[in-house]
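Pair request: fold both.
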Amino acid sequence: MRIQVSAGGLSGATAKSGLLAIPLINGKGSSEKGTSAHLTEVDRRSGGQLTALRAVGDAPSKRFSFSTAPAGNLPAEQLLFAGLGSAETLDRQAILRWAAAVTRKLAGRNVRRLAIDATPIIAALKGDAPALYANGGASFGAGIDARSKERLDAGVLAVELIVRGVIEGSFHEGLDGKSHVEAFPAPLELLEILLPSGCDLSAAKAAVRRSEIIADGTVRTKRWSNRPANEMPPLGIAEEARDRARAVGLRARIIGVKELERMGAGMLLAVGRGSDNPPCMVVLSGGAPRSKDPLGRRLAMVGKGVCFDTGGISIKPADGMEEMKMDKNGAIAVIEAAATVAQLDPGRVIHAVAACVENMPSGHATRPGDVVTALNGKRVEITNTDAEGRLILGDALHFAERDLGATHLIDVATLTGIVNSTFGGEVAGTCGTNPDFLAETHLAARRAGEVYWPYPLADAYMKNMDSWAGDFQNSGTREAMLIRSGLFLREFTTVPWVHLDIAGTAYRRANAPWAGRGSTGAAHSTLVELAMGGGVRR
């Protein structure tokens, strides 16, 4: 797909599109005033189509509502009036999802050229839509000040969000790998984004390239994560990660069982012991060894790569177990985030560590009551083999700090079912040891269009993991299970660390207007923003 940006509004189109999408935004204030004259022009040039729709109550007002109409003398074969909801609740995620939903509305239409009118969106951005800066209208306790507004160029921001949304919305590979179903849109040949006069076209074109790279990484994350366990065992991830590293100029190291044994990664090995597919640790690195990025950091991203999770001896219920092929999403996210960063800024210092295992029951599997020695020397009593993610992450986090010299750590994992029941499928949970780094992560997420919410690391709950056989247990009582998962991971870090629990947001069980079922690519764009300095307040 070729992407181009054109200035001059509706008159600036360089080619007649098959479909021209016109966003309709409700609300009061500067955003409404900024679009009224523009929509009047749309109505006039289309022969009064918007007026006609409003007269019969068919003009889209709610987000993800759509109406088609003849284009008149506008540069398109047909118009798509697409509701973007209220300006008061407009945020980056909403714009991303709107652009993706517009793309998915092409299903069943022979549209190869799509144009999107960005003028109403830019007017809303210039109107300081409250949620755009407040991440859903809330001031985060992790240091995010809802009153602090980024003064980014509205045209550039609109282009970034539209490009990412269209590319992500074009992804249509289902969990079953079917790509021929007519319910999916045909591949686009051209996306043209129409900007009002006065926009910086040079900056907008740079935004296109940046957004293409990020969106491609998100799509790759989805595709990898959707693959079934029989096609993607631990060493399968390692092989593809090595190929990906070679393609983008990263160094790759695959640490197999024998080296893990020599290192003393007892927790990771314990989880993988029951499977015929051996565990491994995948390490991708960019930049000169032991150097730092422009922010003075050596950032390491650590991901949970459980290719399939039966629960081990503490076996899960059969219903829904097939979804556990999604338990590798964290590992795929960090691998692809490192690859994306390498493309955006070749030579930038970045590390990704993916702990890859299968958690299977067998005669060799780790049992409840077993005691294992972690890479940092701590003795852990395993009371629940289904609390395996924290075990492999603990060894991987310590490795990243000790062996890679990481000064800042962030891990991503589909870690706990409780975060899903607490926050649902739209909000991910976070915790961390350093308020400033946690605030940077939340700001990066906001810029990426994702939503995270912090929970506390209350020391009092460590007593719930007391063990007479080891230093502590990997599980414990049901009280404060979410907090205790963070407390466990904290035992393996000494530098600033943030944990992202994406168990609720990593994949969708049903289609949505902006995406199909399967992996969402969660955390990828947040990690990229964080690594590129997007979490540092300017």
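--- second member of the pair ---
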Amino acid sequence: MKRIFSVLCSALLLCSAVRAQGFDSGGLVVDPSTINAFDMFNTATTQFGYGTARSAAMAGAMTSLGGDASSMSINPAGLGMYRSNEITFTPMMTFARATNKGVSAFEGNKKNRFAVGNFGLVAKLRESSTGVTAINMGLSYNRLADFNYKYSFATRGAAGNGSIADVFAGQLAAAGITSAQLKNSYNSAGDFLWSNYDPTYWGAILGYKTGLVYDNSGVWGRDMVANNAAVDSFTTVESSGSAGEWVWSLGMNFGSKFYLGFSLGAATIKREQHTYYGEGYHYSSEPALNYRADYFNYDQVAKMKGTGINFKLGAIYRPIEALRIGVAFHTPTYYTVSYTFQSGMTSQVKALNNVDGYEVNKDNFIDPAFSERTIKLVDDGDYSWSYTTPTRLLLGASYTFAKQVIVSVDYERDWYNTMRMKDSPYGALYKGYIKDTFKGSNTVRAGVEWRFIPQMAVRMGYGYWSGALHDNKAIYSTPVVYKTEYMSAGLGIALSQHFSLDFTYQYCTNEMTPYKTFYGYDSSVDFASDTFNTSIARHNAMMTLSIHF
């Protein structure tokens, strides 16, 4: 199914606000069916905390330091400092732990994952005592961002509190969609014509097809969920995937004073997010309904996969032996992305007054073919998406004390307000929203390496990212990271002239904006879930094997 209606919708409704004739709706589980500005932002955010174990141990403060395979993704001028050929490989484990403030976990808040942080190959092309002292070429894969996490929570509602069915009803009413239209939206094969409707309303249509809402003489409202129902809700979000890049780099050494390098990067994105939302309904007495819903389940899967290209240019100056000053410029990454979406909804319904003559079991539950059926929607993502990430500027300085202790400090500026949706006829709408929502971000990284004996070094690092939102308290369509802090420690061991091992432990925390699972309001009604706060902590363990020859 081509996403022919989604572009305008998602561009206009980027702040998770669906405006249809004055009705605003949104929330975590309401409209994940299109790529929006926060998908762009989430996949563009990197702090260079991965790569090799040495680089991670120093929090990625490698802009001026160089001599590491991670330099190809940070400052390719560092490639010019190599004095030998090298192969590196970095396996790692990530352990994500989520915390939801004020609510209990529903299915768990843990997700563990094996990954590859780095693979690198550096080859010496030229070595001379005059002019260009050395020219080195490198090919490397470096992991840039991790999308693996899981969080869940449950809430217990009081009688008469809001249900997502209220939002579904409000959406369909405001959009002018009638039950008669929906009943006639089938092709000759009996397939529902989802492409006749904007993706914004796909969830609401699923709600209609499972009995949560109904058009009663032109008035949309709850159908099988009584207004006095006590509503329990259950939410689980599980994400997997990563961003990384393959880089081809060239680094040059001019008399061990000045280093120049550039990289051509082929970036990759792969993210899959499963969102589950369910409601259970409790009644102090039987409601005045013909059919009563006991619960419903709503499952959504969004898959995002893409490739991009970028260019990096960097320089390092060494005014004295102990001091290095580095600068690097990263162009935006131009991504082309495919996006697919699937969802399904189930409900269990009891017949209190079986006016339609459904087949029921001994407990008066409608035949499972109805009550437990899954209504499915599959969008194959034929529409092509393209967007650009921020421009980045990195500055760094490092100093070596007594040829034993290295202190390295980086500053990075990323202009997230320059992100652009390219493959969209309504890119200008994205542009305006991005400029209003995002700003430039600041990142500070610092690392220390102490080589107390020639064969062994200990390392520590710290990084802080200030976030890129104008308003960290706003309610967006999805929780958005507004602050990242990471600390690391590591050990490097030279096993021989040709082999070395580096070990690193890294602790990273992501603070996210408050969010609602759903909300909908206009001048007369206001339906909303509670407000939730989630933070994610990651424990990363990595090891780099380096072969020098």
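Observation on the second member. The chain is about 10% helix and 50% strand.
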